[in-house]
Amino acid sequence: MARLIQIEKELKKELIQTKDFLLELVGSIPVGIIATDLRGMVVVVNEQALKLLGMRELVNSALNKPVQKLVSGLPTLKETMATQFAKERSSFEIDLLEIKTPSDSQIFLRAKGEPILGGFLLVLEDITESKLAELELQSKVKELDEARLILMSLSEDIQKEKEGVEIKVEERTRELKEEQAQLMASINSLSLGFILCDLNDQIILKNPAVSRILEIPDSEITIDRIKKYFGDTLDLKVCRDQCVKEKKIVEIKNIVVGKKFFRLLLAPVIMLRDSEEIIGHILLLEDITEAKVIERSREEFFAVASHELRTPLTAIRGNASLIEDFYADKIKDKEIMAMISDIHEASVRLIKIVYDFLDVSALEQRKIEFKKQQFDIIALIQEVMRVLKGMADAKKLYLNLEKADAALPMAMADRDRTKQVLFNLINNGINYSQKGGVSVKVEKQDKFLKVYVSDTGIGILPKNQTLLFREFQQAGEKILTRDVTKGTGLGLYISKLLVEGMAGTIGLVKSEPGIGSVFSFTLPIAFDKKEV
Amino acid sequence: MEKIFLVEDDPLMVRMYEKAFKLSGYDVEMAFDGEEALAKLETMEPKPTLILLDIMMPKLNGLDVLRSLEKNPDLKSIPVIMLTNLAGEKDAEKSLELGAVLYLVKSQYEPKQVVEKVKEVISGYSRKENIPEVKVALKDIESKNEKESKKKK
């Protein structure tokens, strides 16, 4: 019996030692341990468990309390535990229990439950670090996924954009090819030689006409070859430099090489947008030999035709004049003398008509070169009036030059042609007046001198005024009703061509039948070099 | 009696001017083309007082005759009046450049007026003058010549 008591004491002691050892072991484990009995009352709990559950109680104060009470801060675990003890106990693992500790920091717990002999074991593990890492990883993965989705979306957009651009590029390429084909066809069809050069004078493009015009094989055509072709007649480099540096078109006419005549035109190639940079130049070459030949032929024809018309007329006029001057005393018959006088007068009229016709033709073809001379318009008017005075006196008409209000500047025009205009207008005034006379007045208007020629003649009906300044017009009622003694009707037309050729204007200022007419014309004023 | 040398190919003109000058008291010699004119002038004694020279002629035209006259020391001093129906200013300019004293367009002058012009020249009125119909800007010729000689320098 004593022995049994001794053994019991020793066993109890051993149990206590084992229990202490186990408790110490449990206390040292870094995880939270809660063991319960079958009723769910806590029989073992370590500090780590209390710490993880956010409890400040001591271990002993937690013993013999329902485990639900310990885990009351974790509703999910509390419910699980309640279920465990209400039903058959089974293993479980609950992750990511998020609790706030008394220090308000968040921790993640993993709770594992395992039925054991005589109770239940609950192990609580702080998985905060790994959970946070996992959450962060998940967050990063989510971000990556989102980024991936965005990238995919962008990629799709880019792809669509790319396809759109490709289509546009294809369309534009086709358009450009069409434009190029049209341009090439146009350039190749030109009768002018066309050469496009870059800034280094290398030929980028030329058409077949170049070879044909210069009679040089196409393969040999270079800028140097062209320079050599023109030789001393043309300094192509100077022209090209002027064109490119001054960004302007340079034209050279009448280049003679052997028996051929050429016209050359250089134009800069300028980028139209932004910088207006010169990227080259174009050379246009024209063979004007035929045109020159025709022009020369026409000029020769005019010279010869006018000469041939004048010569027999001169003979008629001259001989009639000789008879009047030297043989009058030999011709007794006054009627014969009268006829000779008529022959003379007719020839003078005919010569004037020939001159008028040739003048009109030359003016219309712009063959007449107008000189730019400074002259005193008043002196010129006086000169013309001296010539026409006899004619005016014969009809008892006055010729009057009104004094100008202020000193007048010199005119800048062709003096002889101005004289011709004055002669026409004053002569017309005399011709169409039966009484009174012709007055001339000059005044300055801006940069012009304006000359007014007024007569007291028969005047012109308004409806006939539009006929003035046209060929063969006498501003009469009907074309067949004309006074042939008053000329061919070319005078005003010629005057118009002459005045306009000298950069002036001419017109009818006013006219009243039975009262008279006022014509005017303008001429540019001569400016001193200082003024210009 | 002063001698006028008329160089003219057209018979109408020849007869008319011959008559005009003879009736005005001049002796008249004639040639009907430029070559004949130069040949006659070489051997003519005495030389004529004045030459009336047409331009459009066969064999040698009036301007070429002028050039030849200028080169001949015996003939260059004889005053030449161009008597032509070419009314172009360039022809007039050229003639005066080559040494002609006057340029008259026949159709603009009665024969008597031509005689008057000849008298003026012979009497010493030898400066070049503007003709009513064909005006020649002598200043232009002079300034052109000046420019050309400057270029050559």
Concise summary:
The complex is a heterodimer of chains A (532) and B (153). By secondary structure, chain A is of the alpha+beta class. In chain A, 49% of the residues lie in helices and 23% in strands.
Describe the structure.
By secondary structure, chain A is α+β, with helices and mostly antiparallel strands. Chain A has helices at 2-28, 47-52, 59-62, 67-70, 75-86, 128-189, 208-214, 223-230, 236-246, 289-326, 334-364, 377-394, 415-431, 462-465, 491-501, and strands at 32-37, 42-45, 92-100, 106-116, 119-126, 193-198, 203-206, 250-257, 260-270, 278-287, 373-375, 398-401, 411-413, 437-445, 448-455, 506-512, 516-524. In chain A, a hairpin with a 4-residue loop joins strand 1 (32-37) and strand 2 (42-45). Chain B has six helices and five strands; from the N terminus they run E-H-E-H-E-H-E-H-E-H-H. Chain B is globular.
Gross morphology of chain B is globular
Quickly give the structural class of chain A. alpha+beta
Strand content of chain B: 15-25%
Q: What is the number of helices of chain A? A: 15
What structural class results from the helix and strand content of chain B? alpha/beta
List low-pLDDT spans of chain A: none
**Cα distance, first to last residue of chain A?**
154 Å
Helix content estimate of chain B = 40-55%
Low-confidence stretches of chain B: 130-141
Global mean pLDDT of chain B: 83
Q: Report the count of strand segments of chain A.
A: 17
Features:
A: 532 residues; alpha+beta; rod-shaped; B: alpha/beta; 5-stranded parallel sheet
How would the blueprint of this fold be written?
The complex is a heterodimer of chains A (532) and B (153).
Chain A (H helix, E strand, L loop, with lengths): L1 H27 L3 E6 L4 E4 L1 H6 L6 H4 L4 H4 L4 H12 L5 E9 L5 E11 L2 E8 L1 H62 L3 E6 L4 E4 L1 H7 L8 H8 L5 H11 L3 E8 L2 E11 L7 E10 L1 H38 L7 H31 L8 E3 L1 H18 L3 E4 L9 E3 L1 H17 L5 E9 L2 E8 L6 H4 L25 H11 L4 E7 L3 E9 L8
Parallel strand pairs in A: 12-14
Antiparallel strand pairs in A: 1-2, 1-5, 3-4, 4-5, 6-7, 6-10, 8-9, 9-10, 11-13, 14-15, 15-17, 16-17
Helix pairs in contact in A: 10-11, 11-15, 12-13, 13-15
Chain B lengths: L2 E5 L3 H13 L3 E5 L2 H10 L6 E4 L8 H10 L8 E5 L4 H9 L4 E4 L5 H12 L15 H15 L1
Parallel strand pairs in B: 1-2, 1-3, 3-4, 4-5
Helix pairs in contact in B: 2-3
